Amino acid sequence: MRLPVLAPFVFGLVSALALPRATKYDGYKVVRVEVGDKIVEVETLIQKLALSTWNGGAKAHSEVDIVVPADKVAEFDSEAADLDSRIMHENLGFSIARETDYQIYAIGSANSTWFNSYHPYADHIQFLNDLRNSYPTNSEIVQIGNSLQGRPITGIHFYGTGLKDTKPAVVLHGTVHAREWITTMVTEYFAYSFLSGLASNAEIRNLLNKYDFYIFPVVNPDGFVYTQTSDRLWRKNRQTTSGSSCLGHDINRNWNYQWSTPGGSSADPCAQDFRGRAPADAPETVVLANFVNKLATSAQKLKLFIDYHSYSQLFMTPYGYSCSAVTANDAEYQSLARGVVAAIKAVYGTVFRAGPICPTIYQVSGSSVDYVTDIAKAAYSFTSELRDTGNYGFVLPASQILPSGVEAFAGLRYLLSNLR
């Protein structure tokens, strides 16, 4: 089995703060396997060793990223000897420790140094408040409801000149899946860049005078906190399910549209993509749906919705529930998506792919994008998978926060400037 290391693990920022975590990943490996035509062999290996994957199940002629516990590494190496594989993380625990060397945040310092490090949840809320305090005439904090455990789902609403709540709405979500930390930082980079550029950048000023922006960097706060205190790789919310000891509903399989379409989610409470027992039975889904519906039925209307995820470097259009269904304006959607990926590439050369969700990544039922497209009737609705394509996966070095934000912001500006 070929196991060249994809990337060095010299990254992160040393600081005085590192949170304890109950789930240790010391000695775990993350291995990317080239499936090719050996899908049965790969699936058998995953099932035999009860391994988890980061990017869905094995598919023919694709890649699957497999998490191998320390006590199963030797057996995995033996069983996978004839598979073409590469190491993503030689020691996942070490990678997580480097990633969670947080810089201490000085209250009131909502500036670009924020993007040098990942941060604890409480600091994210403080950053948003400090950003609002830095631009009080053009922004406000919004809390649209509470999570299961009572944490406010908090965002920042910002705008240009004239009355707020009067221009078409742009809504951006981050950290739907708790372990996707880069989405928190990138959506915050958008808010910071728009507000800090308002006075000096004509393009940004024009966009803020044209739209009202609502950015929610952490829409799954309970899950996000759990990744910082207990298990870095937790994905779902923290909801119980009657009759099961497994916790969590996948908020992005729980929206009340095409909720149980076969193949797009799981009915197993222990699965990472568990859709819940009923559509919109997750409190977070209810809060988020109520907010987009309120905007959609207001005088503002909902112009644009984007749900940010990681990882895979994709910018995708509806639909997720079907690989054949397309919107009436699909040609326009694909043109816009191709323009976004070109704008992203123009910054650092990072290659994203564009296309409809289902054929581009995998089938997704009960998703926010499909709901917002067909029920809330947003003019445009997209989802993006940010960096990277498999060097680090969910545990992305802090050194990649700023470039991830810069390139994604270039794509967002292109999109906003080209909407009809």
Keywords:
disordered N terminus, 16% strand, alpha/beta, 420 residues, single chain, globular, four-stranded antiparallel sheet
Would you kindly provide a written description of the structure presented here, covering whatever features stand out?
With 420 residues, the protein is α/β, with parallel strands linked by helices. Helix content is 32%, strand content 16%. It is built from twelve helices and twelve strands. It has helices at residues 39-48, 73-79, 92-99, 121-134, 181-197, 202-210, 221-229, 283-296, 330-348, 357-360, 368-374, 401-418; strands at residues 29-34, 52-53, 63-68, 84-89, 139-146, 152-158, 169-173, 212-216, 302-310, 314-317, 353-356, 380-386. The strands form two sheets. It has an eight-stranded mixed beta sheet, with helices on both faces. Strands 2-3-1-4 form a four-stranded antiparallel beta sheet, with no helix packed on it. The longest helix has 19 residues, at 330-348. The chain is globular. It starts with 28 loop residues before the first strand and ends with a helix. 48% of the residues are buried. Residues 1-21 have low confidence and may be disordered.
